[in-house]
Amino acid sequence: MFFKEFKEYLLHEKKYALHTITAYLHDLETFSIFIKKEFQTDTISVLSYNQIRNWIISLVNQGLTNRTINRKMSSLNTYYKYLQKTQTIEINPLATHKALKTQKKIQLPFSESEVSTVLNNIEFSNDFEGVRDKLIIELFYATGIRRTELVNLKVNDVDLNNGVIKVLGKRHKERYIPLIGSVSISISNYLRERNLLNIIKDDSYLFLNKSGVKLNDSLVYKVVRNCFSQVSVKVKKSPHILRHSFATHLLNEGANLNAVKELLGHTSLAATQVYTHNSIAELKKVYQTAHPRSK
Question: Which of 89, 111, 134, 178 lies at 20 to 30 Å from 117 by C-alpha?
Answer without folding.
Answer: 178
